[in-house]
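chain below, 174 aa
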Amino acid sequence: TEHILNYNDQGIALAGLIVEKLSHQSFYDVVEDNISNHLCMNNSSIRPELPHPLKNNLAKSSAIDVNTIKSHAHDYILTYPAAGLVSSPSDIAKFIKMHLNSGSGLLSENAIQEMHTRQFANHPELRGWCYGFAEWYENGHRFIFKDGQATGFNSRLFIDPESKWGFYLVWNRS
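prediction:
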């Protein structure tokens, strides 16, 4: 049997819509009720209209255009419900800790292990894909990661499931 990987936001969006149908709630409410509130991620939102405390504390991205520095306005990435999380580094740290602490009561240890397990690779010696993460190998050591992009910003979440540590970077990409 031949397997083909097709990474795209549409598959994740479909999974989110299935969650909405099964829960009879908007995906926004499901995420807030079951993830953000549980992990005390008070500086995070996936809603297109950000709550005022979060909206007022957004980092600003800028770019040099000729000899002028121009700021980028925040934009919402409309691939609902596959993307669009706005979060602080301290809230992302809580998400990383959940992954490193066997689910922290939010997910079962088995669910976390399944999310961290390779689900597909084009070849056994190449990086593969997990549920929600991709693999990264450095000096024979395996990590999992997730990249993010928004106007003017890039981010990378890195987790070492074996050694139980992780980090999050966000930078101005202009």
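Residues 68 and 169 are 26 Å apart (CA to CA). The radius of gyration is 17 Å.
thats it, cya
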